Amino acid sequence: MPAHDTTTRAELTDPVEENRALQATESRVAIAGHPLHAMLVAFPIALSFCVLGADLLYWWTGDAFWPTAAGWAAFGAFVMGVIAGVTGTVELLIVPGIRNRSASWTHFILAVMLLSLMGANWWLRVGQPAEAVLPPGLLLSLLVAGLTGVTGWHGGKLVFDYQIGTSGGASSRPRG
Ligand code: HEM
After folding, report:
1. Residue 88 Cα, ligand 1 centroid: separation in angstroms?
2. Global pTM?
3. Where are the chain's structural domains?
């Protein structure tokens, strides 16, 4: 029998699976078990696409209403994004099963980059909503919408693929 065959399956257990504390992934920043983060992220996601839509409508129509609407939507996206980010960060830091999975930190890094860009997209427009749109505001809105899609998709992956934030316990075996 070759030397490598002497290694038994029992010796190849996943260290994360062995530690029961690391299986605890249930959300603690929640109302009746429903994570606040999941409730709040809908706002920055929707508002960042509203900013892009308003910028495109200004480009198309030239109507001064749209830059004003885009400025307020950018402000709302940033503020609600920060509030959602705080709930996600508390979750990340206090729940061992979330903190100990690299996918959670990937989501955090994506989200912090996104929040910085959302802040810039709002700040650029303060006091000069119309002048800011073409082209820097529109380009920034495109970037924010794209990164919002990636970050939101990745957040969904945390929940649906890794069971992070759920009460059923995490799967340590990544899929896809
Ligand atoms: C800034 C730091 C952030 C951290 C640390 C964070 C962390 C998390 C965590 C731990 C989850 C798993 C579910 C839970 O435990 O609540 C999650 C889910 C999710 N996150 Fe974040 N997040 C952050 C910001 C954001 C932002 C800005 C967005 C907006 C695009 C976002 C979008 C999502 C989505 C869509 C889910 C899936 C929710 C569901 O379907 O239940 N996250 N996030």
Report:
1. 6
2. 0.88
3. 33-160
